[in-house]
Design goal:
129 residues, mainly beta, 37% strand, globular
């Protein structure tokens, strides 16, 4: 990306996993490796790409996305607060969160087409693991 780790108008991130590459649900140590903005048919979103660090799932990439909404109870606000403790981070500063390490709760979901995938349900406090 040119000049920053957060870019405007990117395509929605594709989940890099296939069902054969699924990792078991659980708590994993992860590093935020990329932040991007994109638009779906219905909303503008921010994608947080995490890479699992350590253990048998080392290197697995899992994406958490959130609608761009800074309401105090929104998923985006909760994600930002979990990463840096400050929910007032401006969108232009999200790129500075890249490299942050946190435990994440990974679970599995099913798409409307029946595909099973991993996703991050929650980012936990740093002292959890």
């Amino acid at each position: 990306m040119t000049g920053s780790d957060i870019a405007q108008r990117q395509e929605a991130p594709q989940n890099p996993q296939t069902e054969k590459e699924l990792i078991p649900p659980g708590i994993y140590q992860a590093e935020l490796t990329r932040v991007l903005r994109y638009q779906t048919l219905t909303s503008k979103r921010v994608g947080f790409e995490f890479t699992i660090r350590g253990g048998p799932a080392d290197g697995a990439v899992i994406i958490q996305s959130a609608v761009i909404n800074y309401n105090p109870k929104s998923r985006l606000t909760a994600t930002i607060k979990a990463l840096c403790g400050n929910e007032q981070v401006r969108p232009s500063k999200l790129r500075y969160l890249v490299g942050t390490k946190r435990p994440v709760l990974v679970i599995q979901g099913k798409s409307r087409h029946g595909t099973i995938f991993n996703y991050i349900d929650r980012i936990l406090p740093a002292e959890t693991v």
